[in-house]
Description:
alpha/beta; Uracil-DNA Glycosylase, subunit E
Amino acid sequence: MAETKILPPKTEDATLEALPVPLPSFKGRLNLSSFAFSAPAPQPLRRSPRSLTPKVEASNSPTALISILKIEPSNSPSPSRKRGTDSLSLPPSASSSPTKKSRSHTPAGYAPPSKYAHLNELVDILEPHLLCIFIGLNPGVRTATEGHAYSHPSNRFWKLLYSSGLTTRLMKPVEDRRLPALYGLGNTNIVARPTRNGAELSKQEMDDSVAVLEDKMRMFKPEAVCIVGKSIWESIWRVRHGRAIKKEEFRYGWQDEGEAMGKLDRLKAEGEGGWKGARVFVATTTSGLATNPTQAEKETIWRELGVWVEKRRGERAAEGGVDVVVGGAAEVLLN
């Protein structure tokens, strides 16, 4: 009979000895990560509902318009603020500058004669057989108030007369009535009534004044006329040809002989000593506000007229002119 061994019962200490013993560690003491501060996860910034609208090509399709209108703005919450920072609310004047409204320049429209009825018309400076008569648009308010041609300081009429050789010195507006005696020059306008600017005149009244202008030239018979501004020549052309001048037909400078001002038919011309009308020279406007043509181009155009006037003035002086001294400068008194 086999011998049976009776084992002693396992005690608690024996059970503990049978379990695996972990290595010594301080992890339990040093695991403080659960107590450290952790920043909240960043959330997406709230965007304007307008920026969420998809860009679509311009289309008149109702489906495209409906798809745009159905898009709703995002309701995502605003991002949380960091602790210790406060947002400063600034008044509207400090946070952003006010938007300036763009000024739209509306050109002045037609003004009836009654608007400037209190102003006097400018007196024509005309004498028979002058070298050249200047034909302006109409008197401005400053010119009508002072009673002298081209009186506004910004107008370059008198400066162009001097720089081109039409006058031998820079004259002042108050000396305008001396132009015939000193230089054989005169002045008139296509429209007599004054306005603040040319836009207050109508094309119809300009066209109606062409016949009066032609009569003046027939009466005083100058050698040439100088049209001071493109719009004046356009009006004369409309009346003569019954249509607007074409772009390729317009040019500054001397015009064709057939465009002479105040010309008479053959029989009347013979009775008037063979006078066939005044040659026409189209010059630029002298307004200081006009930037086209440029100032250099204006000087070139006016100089062409000045060369012709200087030549004719010398020829007239040789035929019987008298030299006089005015203001220390020698000038020619034309017969």
